[in-house]
Amino acid sequence: MSEYRYKLSSRAKQVLKKIKDKALLRRYQATMWAICERPFEGDPKVGDLGGVFTVGFRYVDGEHRVAYTVVEDGDTEPFVLILLVGTRENFYEELKRIWKGL
Asked: Residue 41, class by beta-carbon neighbours within 10 Å (0-12 exposed, 13-18 middle, 19+ buried)?
C-alpha cells in the first residue's frame, strides 16, 4: 500500500463529475492510484510549471492527462494533489492558471 493518498482540486472534481463514460472515469481513477504508488515517476514540468508532474494515457477519443503535485509539508501526511485532468487540448493553459492561483 502506498504512503500517499490523492486529493482532488476543485477543478479536477468538476471535470471528473462531468465524465459520463464510466470506462474513462475508471481509467482516470486507476491512473491516479498509480500516481500514488510512484508519485515522482511522472513527467516533471519546468519553468512556470515547476513542481508539477503529468502522466498521460491514450483513450478512444485521444490523449488524456493528469497533472499533480506532491505535498510533503511535515504538518500533515504526504499526499498527491490532483490539479487537473482532461484531454490535451488547452490542458497546459488551464493548468498554468490553476498553478498560479495556488
From this structure: exposed
Report pLDDT digits (tens) over 29-65. Answer: 999 999 999 999 999 999 999 999 999 999 998 999 9
Check: pTM over 0.85? Answer yes or no: yes
- Number of structural domains (the chain) is 1
C-alpha cell at 80: 498527491
Domain that holds residue 37: 5-101
Compute the CA torsion angle 46, 37, 102, 25 (nearest 10 deg): 100
CATH number, domain containing residue 80: 3.30.2310.20
Q: Report the b/e string of 42-80 with b at 16+ CB within 10 A.
A: beebeeebeebbbbeeeeeeeebbbbbbbeeeeeeeebb
CA separation, residue 9 to residues 3, 15, 62, 94 (Å): 20, 10, 23, 13
